[in-house]
Amino acid sequence: MDERNGTPLSMNATGASQVPRPGMFATVRNRRGIVSAVEPFDGQEGRLHLVHLDYKDDQLPAEEQLLWELEPRKVLLEPTALPDAVATDPMPSEDFDALLRAARWTAATPFLDPAGGGPLDRLPISSPFHGAVQVEDFQLVPLLKALQMPRVNLLIADDVGLGKTIEAGLILSELLLRRRIQRVLILTPASLRLQWRDEMWEKFSLPFDLVDRAETNALHRRLGMDANPWRSFSRIIASYHYLRQEDVLTQFLAACRTPEGSPHLPWDLLIVDECHNLMPSPFGDDSDLCRMLRLLAPQFEHRLFLSATPHNGHTRSFTGLLEILDPVRFSQTDELKKAERERIQQVVLRRLKREINARTNPPRFCRRNPPQALVLELSSQEIALSTACS
What does the alpha-carbon distance between residue 199 and residue 314 come to, in Å, rounded to a whole number? Predict the structure, then answer.
């Protein structure tokens, strides 16, 4: 097979294994990178090649050394190769037009400013223009508040139906566009995993991988038993009931190890949906979910908690949750002091529907009227039936 016709190759014309050369593209372990160096040596199984690979995605590790002959499903591609125009169908005109518009829009993004004042001084937000969602004005408040924080530690406690998922997606998308984050973990109840994945893809074009027992077993079959899903994927959605399992939590913490003295944390952003399920207990020992969250939170640079009911009536539980969110500002206590109440305004954002309606005309949401008693006029047959059954 001609290795310069654009067709991925792992065998040459004689059937022998193709030896990589520096500068070639290689796809191994579901990742693509460039071969930077090749070191041959003779072993018991014959001549092997130690390949130095620099990956070109946003996952970790950024570079790796591997034995080429022992890697399954490896693919090589010449750096100067062109796509095979004969073996593939041409791109439909509609797709080409969409690609061209997307390229032009991406190129113009750094220079867009909705207010027209220029981006150099104000650094305008970009995520609302990259999402397939009609953003309400009140949904921009968490985004603007998050961008004012050097380290995003925010509890969004908006009322049900105000769009906490959209608000979290706007913050996530903006931080990605600004290159402030790469690795993201979203923890949700098991019943909401698919909803979160679909929302992130359909509304923000952000692909996420679901990590559960089935996906972990599939990854082991593809890459070997030593493959760690928490290290293999950079954007993950998982159930916190799954992650609390001892073997899974140990696997996650093993993937969080960083070189000694490194100033970087292993993860960038943690989003916890329905975080009230992981609140510390006001009495006695904390639940397994809360202990898991206490172990996870220090591994993340930014933390975003979502809940419509963040306070369960116990100050100790609420302050314990704030301590996990931002241990610099808060500590778990039974009584909030004045200074602590002021600091709550810095990290907690809560709006109710009636508050939004009070500031908009016409109201955005329906008003809930108090219940009224209705007088029922029963027929003689219904009265007779009711009397017979009483």
Answer: 33
